[in-house]
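Example 3.2
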Amino acid sequence: MKKILYALILISTFGYAKLNIIASILPEQALIQSIGGEHVHVALMVKPGNSPHTYEPKPSQMKDIARASLYLAMGVEYEKVWLPKFANQNPKMQIIDLSEGIEKYPISGEANHHTKHLDPHIWTAPENLKKIAKHIYDVLSQTDSTHQAEYQKHYKSLILTIEETDKQLHQILDPLSKEQKRFIVFHPSWGYFARAYDLEQIPIEIAGKSPKPRAVQRLITRARKLGIQTILTSPEFSDAVAKQIANALKINVLKISPMEPKWNENLLKLAKTISNN
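Structure, written as tokens:
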């Protein structure tokens, strides 16, 4: 009887153990959770309101690293410094780059520095989201084959959501004229989104630096000529220059972050904002 009870305890302990996974950013965490469901525990590194370019993990987050079996990287800037440290902290943790196989392009306005500044915001385009989802599905299925059927079901459902979102985005953005397809942002984080829907992203910030007064004046003149009605900023960055431009033009400043976990609602919000410009 004791042996049977002990066996049942073992089954209970290990049969329902969740995969401990680390995600770098919120949208990625949401994608992993949507495929992994109840079989994964996904800890987040870059906390809301912080930039993945400069983030420094808190000492308390090292506890998550110590017990994780998987780190699913996204190719964001802070990982270059911290992934080697995480690997030293937990040598048994497998690190997998979900951005592998996705072509990266220069950040808007930095075409002459493309070897240094490739745009890491790959998750803002539905086609890239599908590739990321496939990576996640493959990793979870290989690591935990017991629940492969459930992962596959969730993965297929996610792909349908991505494709439906893409369809809605085309319906909103395709009818716009060339002039209507231009939008001004502070931090150029929507490059892949713009490329996917034939839009033009006009950044205020270049190479992480705010523009000088003469460049600000040029932006004001251009925005006035284009009839821009909204400037997009992100909570992760200062919006002082964006407000300066908006005040000069008497237009709105809208905060919208590529770090939102509800990625599909966020992309649709962005598209509707651009279409109303």
